[in-house]
Design goal:
Layout: H1 3-37, H2 41-69, H3 71-89, H4 95-123, H5 126-166, H6 174-180, H7 185-190, H8 194-212, H9 235-238, H10 243-266, H11 269-275, H12 280-291, H13 294-307, H14 310-333, H15 338-362, H16 372-424, H17 433-437
Length: 438
């Protein structure tokens, strides 16, 4: 692991950061948009869910496209989609238009996430892979916090429309990706494009030797036989063959339950604080404070996945999220002092952002190169069904069961996800992608 791989990682992570800001910004502007358009709780939940419909479609299609046409071109196209979507959100004249453009924005983000996972997984050495993929997901709390800071500083001056327009500008970062990031050599080899794969690897070896100050590199060691790389049918069909069937069932259940709980709660954090009687600026500021715990959360997860393992760390973060969500709901329902509310919220975000890091580190490791992006994409898209349903369900449950009922529902989702990992999960720590896949 040298500066060259870290540079590639930084480029992918920066694109991921921009995506995360666009996704997280709705948490801080939902209450304001609700007021401006005079939306009911159910309509507000539908608006919060709209981007996740696009993410569902984007994640499912991008994985297959990336496994068929390559990681690099599909990654670039995804950035163009979310840039256009964000720009047009700022010009929406009514809530239906806004929902439509949020679907397009979500489509681009849904495309980018599984491809970014596959790209990082395929360029980072096995003993660092889990940590770096977990760190990549750590850019989500940074993006979420940045979204809160942007909303806090700008919402009163340029409004939510101006913020959406401004957030479209980073899409020009696609030019950096196009120039600096190579195609995955693993994918090129698997596609039979051996000359191109050799060129990518030779260039990487030269850069690594230069970065590390070496004259030569040791000979690579074969970890699996060539026959094990042979295709076994369609990309989607392979997800349910042999050892992959159990992994697919585990991942789809895990992603659905985890994202149902996470987005059901997080998308409403600002609006729920406003409903509890806090003014708009304070609700945004408190949500930013709460989100700060995501930084140590993902750092802790990134360390634990290599030290303790993916499976155990995933269960810890899920159960911690469940307990913290329940206590946060109690604090919100009883209108506890602000310090208690923020304290419970900090614990909740610590575990939930840690959970995200493990999800993204774990998922791409469980499939072979030929179907890695497809497997990660479909797991993510199933999760987006949960994230699509979650905010809308909260809008239905809130008038009936109150805030305690909402957060108890989220806690139950996290507990169920932890049980799925316990009974169906496998450990991948310290093993090469080829070892894990075969």
């Amino acid at each position: 692991m040298t500066g060259y791989q870290r540079m590639l990682f930084a480029i992918i992570a920066t694109a991921w950061l921009f995506d995360s800001i666009d996704l997280g910004i709705m948490t801080f502007m939902l209450g304001t948009i609700k007021t401006e358009f005079g939306l009911t709780a159910a309509q507000t939940g539908l608006l919060a869910s709209s981007s996740f419909l696009g993410m569902f479609l984007g994640a499912a299609s991008a994985g297959m496209l990336a496994d068929k046409f390559g990681r690099r071109p599909v990654f670039q196209v995804s950035m163009i989609f979310w840039g256009i979507g964000s720009l047009m959100c700022g010009y929406a004249s009514n809530v239906n238009e806004l929902m439509g453009w949020r679907v397009l924005l979500g489509f681009g983000m849904g495309m980018e996430f599984p491809i970014g996972l596959a790209m990082v997984s395929e360029i980072v050495p096995a003993d660092k892979r889990g940590r770096y993929v977990a760190i990549l997901e750590g850019f989500w709390p940074f993006g979420f916090i940045a979204a809160g800071v942007i909303a806090y500083l700008s919402l009163g001056h340029i409004g939510w429309r101006g913020i959406f327009i401004a957030l479209a500008v980073p899409a020009i970062f696609v030019l950096v990706v196009r120039r600096m990031v190579p195609e995955s050599a693993r994918w090129l080899e698997d596609a039979g494009r051996y000359a191109e794969a050799e060129r990518v690897i030779s260039h990487m070896e030269e850069r690594v030797m230069h970065s590390a100050g070496l004259r030569s590199l040791p000979e690579p060691k074969r970890v699996v036989t060539a026959s094990q790389y042979q295709s076994r049918g369609s990309l989607i069909g392979e997800l349910f063959k042999g050892i992959y069937a159990k992994r697919t069932i585990m991942l789809w259940s895990l992603w659905f339950l985890a994202l149902l709980g996470y987005y059901g709660l997080t998308s409403w954090l600002g609006a729920l604080l406003q409903q509890a009687g806090y003014e708009v600026t304070k609700s945004v500021l408190y949500t930013v404070y709460i989100s700060l715990a995501g930084i140590p959360g993902f750092i802790c997860a990134a360390w634990l996945v290599e030290r303790w393992g993916r499976k155990s760390t995933c269960m810890l973060m899920l159960l911690g999220s469940a307990a913290a969500a329940y206590f946060y709901g109690q604090s919100a329902a009883t209108q506890a002092p602000v310090s208690q509310l923020i304290g419970a919220g900090l614990c909740m975000q610590f575990f939930m952002f840690g959970m995200w890091s493990v999800l993204y580190a774990y998922t791409p490791e469980l499939y072979p190169t030929r179907s890695r992006a497809t497997g990660a994409g479909f797991a993510s898209s199933i999760g987006r069904i949960g994230s699509l349903i979650g905010p809308y369900v909260v809008g239905l449950v809130l008038p009936v069961a109150g805030q305690l009922g909402v957060f108890s529902l989220g806690a139950a989702c996290f507990v169920a996800a932890a049980l799925v990992v316990l009974f169906l999960g496998v450990e991948t720590k310290g093993r090469s992608l080829e070892e894990v896949s075969h």
